[in-house]
Every structure is written in structure tokens, then in C-alpha cells.
Amino acid sequence: MNEIEPSLQPAQLILSPGPEYADDQRCWQGIPGIERSPGGRLWATWYSGGAGEGPGNYVVLVTSAGVAQTWSGPQLVAQHPNPACRCYDPCPWCDPHGRLWLFWAQSQNWFDGRAGVWAIRCDDPDAAHPHWSSPRRLCHGVMMNKPLVLSTGEWCLPTAVWGSVEPHRPELAEERFSNLVVSTDAGASWTRRGGADVPKRAFDEHMVIERQDGSLWMLVRRHDGIGEAISTDRGITWLATPTAVLPGPNARFFIRRLRSRRLLLVNHARASTRSHLTAWLSGDDGRAWIGGLLLDERPGVSYPDGTEAPDGTLHLIYDYNRGDRWALGHDREILLALVREEDILAGQVVNPNSRLRVRVNQATG
Fold it and tell me: Which end of the chain is more exposed for a tag (fewer CB within 10 A), N or C?
């Protein structure tokens, strides 16, 4: 009988993380995500472990009762028992049924040419210590950005088998794209529907928006900014634009449709550096962007993610000087901006309850 490769085996869920996972033991951390439960509890995640991105990385999950000022220490850690493997690029998401999912990628070494998207789920995300399902592998590839629910009711994961780095597995040549993996049964099963071949893409890190006309608009990280692809058949086929359509310094961005029906984009205002993290709005499906609220101008800010509360508060999370090869210093902070659409339109904080640079966590190892 053939032995199962380590990266295809589940990670360990550590539900009572010990002192070895405390802030003073982590020498780097970054790539965060945030989600809000139906009752208002906030959940934030990122990954750490070792000296930087590579074998031994693990996923951390923390929580706040909803005030966003006070955060717990690690409530859950997902770590692979094999030291040659890593868990990375986590993504939290509340589905239409109010259940909280935590996705992450898993690979042997830094990247093994295949990786894999894994997930756990809890049905009581308003509890301080919820019950989690066992880890389940959903598909090949990496996914760090939130799923999309189409108007048809289908759930879509933006996953990618990286084509910009080696190794390349010949058997996965047809999946080495910015993919859409779809569930028609509320997450019980997942099937790859199609993928976009966007030129000059780097780690993909794509997000998908359903436009008002029913087409799907995919934005993809490129070496020279942000590229796009459009599908008019719900993700089966994609037409990619040959050049970048938005500026960017080859880094993750964040886009989502808000309750107001506007689009929110968080990206770097300077195309050459990971600095000047800024939020814009669009009322015409991304053809024009208005406002422009500078969230953090410092070099070393990167990888935004966000969620929206029913009252319109936007929780926008990002990292600052991770402590790895991308960092300009050793601040190793996970930060949060609490803003509203009126702040973005005004280009400055005008709501008395809005706040910038709220610290979620700082590693001091």
C-alpha cells in the first residue's frame, strides 16, 4: 500500500494552545484575516511559526467579544505534526447560514507544486470557545481570500495552484490557474469549475465579484499591479485582460461588495512600495473609484482583509512589518482600521466612532 504524503494528512487542532504559542515566542507573523459572527463576535487569524514562511508554519486564531479593543491570546492553532509541512494563508468566513469557516493552505516544504485548501467549521461562532469540526481537504491549491456567494446560491472559493513558482507537477497543468471551486450543496462538496490564465500573475491571491449584469469580475495579483479576467458563464470560461488594470506593488489587495451595493477596494496607493494602504469605493462596479481614505502610510503595511458589520462599520485588518523577509522593521503587528463609507468618501475620518491603527496583536519573540 502506498504511503499517504504528509501534506495530504490533516493538521492538528490545538484548542488550548500552550505558552509555546504565546506572543513572546513568535518572532514573525503576518497575512491576517478577519470575520464577524452573526452576534457580533470578531475572529482574527494569521500565521506564524519558525523564522519566516516555510516548514513549521502554523495558523493562529484569536477572538474579541466585539469591541475590537481587547483581543484574546491564541484560541486555536492549526499545526501539522510533520515538521516538513506547513499551514499558512488562513481565511475566516461566515457562510449564509451563520457558520464560521476557517480555511488554510497546507504544503510540504515552502511549496510542493500542489498544496491544498483545508477547512474546519463551527456552528456556534458567537461562543467564546466554539466546537470545531475535524479538518477536511477541499481541493488542490491555495486560498487566502474570502469565498463569494453568487446570486444563484452557489458558493465559490478563489483557489490557485501557483504557476509563478516551481515545482510544477505535470498532472496539475490544467489547474495551474486562478481557479473557481464551487459548491452547490452549502459546502458539503466542492468542484473546480474553471480558471483564468492572467498574464504575469504572482501567487494569484485573486478575488471575485459578481457584477450587476451577472458577469463575474476576477482581480488577480500581478508582478506589475492587479490584473483582471471576466466570465459570463458563472466561472466556466474566463477572458483575461493582457495588461494590469489597477496599480499595485505586487501584493495582496482586498475587494468586496458592501451592503450599500458599492464596491470597497483596499490597496496600496503607491505602486512601487507596500505603503499607503488606502480604501476606495465604487458605485459603478469598479469602473471608477471615489474617495480615498489613507489607512496607514508607513512602509511595511500589507495584506488587507475585511468584513462589514450590520451598522456599516468596516473592520479592515492588515499586518505591519511582519519580521520576515518583506519587513522593514520588527514591529510584527496585526492592526485594524474601524471605518465607515462616509470616512472613505470624505478622505478622512469623520465618524466619531471610527479608529485607525487599532492593535490586534504584536509578536515579541
Answer: N
Distance CA 295, CA 315 (A): 12
Q: What is the mean pLDDT of residues 260-264?
A: 98
Secondary structure class of 364 (helix, strand, coil):
coil
What percent of the chain is modeled with pLDDT above 70? 98
Sequence-separated (6 or more) residues with CB below 8 Å from residue 344: 264, 279, 280, 281, 291, 292, 293
User: Does residue 358 register a pLDDT over 90?
Assistant: yes
Report how far residue 223's alpha carbon sits from residue 226's, in angstroms, rounded to the nearest whole number.
8
SS3 183: strand
pLDDT-derived band at 167, boundaries 50, 70, 90: very high
Report the pLDDT averaged over residues 318-347. Answer: 91
Domain 1-144, CATH: 2.120.10.10
Nearest residue to 317 via CA among 286, 338, 299, 343: 338
Residue keyed to cell 507544486: 113
What are the boundaries of each domain within the chain?
1-144
How far apart CA 189 and CA 209 sit, in angstroms, is 22
Confirm if 287 and 280 have CB atoms less than 8 A apart: no
DSSP classification of residue 115: B
Q: Please state, in angstroms and rounded to a whole number, the distance separating the CA atoms of residues 10 and 51.
A: 23
- Which DSSP string corresponds to 197-259? --TTBSS---EEEE-TTS-EEEEEEETTEEEEEEESSTTSS-EE-SS-SB--SSS--EEEE-T
Q: How many CB atoms lie within 10 A of CB 213?
A: 8
Minimum mean pLDDT range among 29-33, 124-128, 266-270: 124-128
Position 326 scores a pLDDT of: 64
What is the sign of the dihedral through the CA atoms of 251, 339, 211 and 140? positive
